[in-house]
Amino acid sequence: MLSQRARRKTGQWAKGFAVALTVIYTIFPYYWAINSSFKSGQQLFEVNLWPSLDLVHYRALMGDPDFIGSILNSVIVASSTTFIALALATFSAYALGRLEFAGKRAVLLAFLSVSMFPQVAVLSGMFELIRWLGLYNHVGSLVLAYLLFTLPFTIWVLTSFMREFPRELSEAAMMDGCSHWRTLTRIYLPLMGPALASTGLLAFIAAWNEFLFALTFILTDENRTIPVAIGLISGNSRYEFPFGPVMAASVIVTLPLIVLVLIFQRKIVSGLTAGAVKG
Amino acid sequence: MASVTLTGAQKRFGNVTVISGVDLQIADGEFVVFVGPSGCGKSTLLRMIAGLEDFSGGSLQIGGKHMEDVMASKRGVAMVFQSYALYPHMTVARNIGFALETNGMPRAEIARKTREVAELLKIGKLLDRKPRELSGGQRQRVAIGRALVRSPDVFLFDEPLSNLDADLRTEMRAEIARLHKELGVTMIYVTHDQVEAMTLADRIVVLREGRIEQVGTPAELYAHPANEFVASFIGSPRMNFAAAADVPGRGMGGAVKLGVRPEAILLSSSGLAATLERVEDLGHEQLIYVRLENGRLWTLRAAKDADVPQPGAPIFLDWPDAATYGFDAAGRAVQRSAA
Amino acid sequence: MSRVLARRERRAAWLFLAPAIVVLLLVAAWPLSKTFYLSLTDANFGNPDQYGFVGLRNYADVLDDRLWWKSLSNTLFFTVASVGIETVLGIAIALLLNQAIPGRGMLRASILIPWAIPVVVSAKIWEWMLHDQFGVINAVLIHLGVIERGLAWMAEPGLALWVIVFVDVWITTPFMVLLILAGLQMISKEVLEAAYVDGVPAWRRFISITLPLLRPSIGVAVLFRTLDALRMFDLSYVLGGNSQKTMTVSIYARNQLVSFQQMGLGSAASTWVFFLVALAAILLIGLLKLHKPAEG
User: Fold this and answer.
1) Which CATH class is domain C66-231+271-287?
2) In the predicted model, what is the mean pLDDT of chain A?
3) What is the per-residue pLDDT across A202-246, written as a single tens digit (0 to 9) for each?
4) Max alpha carbon distance in chain B (Å)?
5) Residue partners of B8: CB distance under 8 A and separation at least 6
6) Of residues A15, A26, A272, nearest to C96 (C-beta)
7) How does strand B186-190 pair with strand B154-158?
8) C: neighbours with 3+ CB pairs under 8 Å?
9) ipTM field
10) Yes or no, beta carbons of A101 and C14 under 8 Å apart
11) Which of B81, B105, B130, B188 to mutate to test the interface with A (most CBs of A within 10 A)?
12) Are residues B85 and B134 in the same domain?
């Protein structure tokens, strides 16, 4: 029979071990990508835990106008999508979270069901729309298409944030003579900073990572976004393994995201769960 | 400054009637308190006057002008909310001046008025702080300041003291009474606390289930409750009741139920028989709980140094005839026949 | 009768909603109807403006294609396996994170990394790690003596789909963990302490208190993840290419649309995917009783 204290101690050890194992499981693949990105030539094919810090792949990528262009395209697409989605979602969230009107539930449900659409189900229709707007093979097509999944999601999350504010704020503003527009812009918007930051970051990541639309609506290399560019990197011959450059590219496009995510850790978690748990 | 008149005021939420036909006249400069149990519609009625709720029927006049279709900010009313509803991202000064800012008043003018109001409320030193840096009492003052700065004709208070602890509550009660005296402005005040109602009001409006049960000065309500509900609601500890048949010799014409206030009852050697159950010593007085023969629990008050028998002791209760209230089968007060 | 406030509020609400509604009509409702419309035609990607109506023939043609059924069974297998494993793993890690243990902050941060990495990048990283000759996983397994020669993971018929499942579990378990952890933190400590004082053993506390109270959080997480898994495209596309071993219904539909230029047939396949996801959503919402709040 183990004493209570000894049992607790083994329990702590077991938990510590489980934590360590989980951390390794989640981090190791990314570490391995970083490790491989610093290896060139023959080194790449040796299993070596410590990197050699060879920057050859990074230099090559930085000199590749298509790669730099893809990063730029991704930044443009993801930030435009995020900005538009946040703006429209803020208006909608005010209506859905603060105002009373018949049909509110139906509207909320409609938005929610849009977020469940499989992307492939709108692919041919979206293709028609984009051709009709003259946006085929243009990054603008992606900004438009990405609103399909960023907008319902941002509306949903911002609405649940909006509901957290005391209703009396609206009433005080009303007594003070504010129109709905002024109530939103002068009272709620300044208070929504943290909510906008976390929701925006989630939308940005979703847009940054999208693959299917980007693969389908963009035809030429110079207009591609980063995920497609990485997905399509290939060696000069089928016997060449482009994993060095691919890993370097992966590190470059992922590092900023990871840094942002770690900085905004708490806010992201509240954003991810705001819609789901309370909604 | 203005009078307030409600005529047949009604409010329905879907099928639920919250306010059913309230008629009320409030004179210019009067301090009126709405009291009633929770759910009686007192806050709804206040919010209708404020312009935060539509009228489902009836009308509202402020200063003789119809207001039921006028926007809240144009009614000449200001409101202090239960939770204060201060804007968290604005300083105290901006919180107070925001209504004026919204109205497009010049900045210098806003600053002057804000300072004036802050001095009156003794929060002049706090103008640069944010609401989260203030104590409960200070927030309360800012909330009042925000209402005050608009120089409203009518002040509305929605349970403004319920978030404060007992000491501050007394202090702010005095403060609000002082403001009413200095400004002479019409005030309507909602509370569920009858001490606030009795101490602040010129007149009290007792509401139940969306109807007015009685309107009168605190003294009138205490001395002459119109019905059983008001009798039991006003006064603490509440009035003791018993069926008229159970209290021999105290009957009143037409009364099926009798009531006696705890402070009117004396321990005596004869009278209504009861058993002493429990004594609570509050320090400044004692509350005595007794069980009548029919099982009802009554309360009476005794002086702090009064000689009270032990629990379990048989006792007799006596009170002056004039302290007996009678109620008919519908709960209406029965007039004491003029002797 | 006056309804000034209500009227003003209603008008404002629709004005504030208008931009989002217009955008969603444009990018969701219209394309979806257009896809449905095209599914009834023989339209071709190369020349999308000339087509004739063929009724429901495209739908029948999809159902006649053995590859469609293969994709469907792949998709269902992938969904059940990955969501199942993620749920169990998610609950375990969430429970771990909910305790005061050393390294908790580290774990909480590290769990976000797989989630933040683009799926394409994750796919590439795992493709590299699973490489038959130079992959680190084969190297480790050989070193440990588990296998003698490096496995070609994606080429083995029995393994390829499991690899996709495994990588998906790595990518999306964090999402599960975060949702379930949020649910855990809403459970009042006092309830569990009361049970502890009453001498209820730990596993019983978990089964009869924690788990039932977690039901809504787990339900929502399972719903989101299932709908995501059913429409999965990028992971399989990058890791498996056009291999039939790992083809999902989304890849099948896109192939018909883009690679084979069959807009009509592809749209019909897309519409089948839509119905599949919609059906799953309805079933899950009913099954998990998500519309009812949890007790307590």
Assistant:
1) mainly alpha
2) 86
3) 899 999 999 999 999 998 888 999 999 988 876 554 455 678 888
4) 76
5) B21, B22, B23, B57, B58, B59
6) A15
7) parallel
8) A, B
9) 0.88
10) yes
11) B81
12) yes
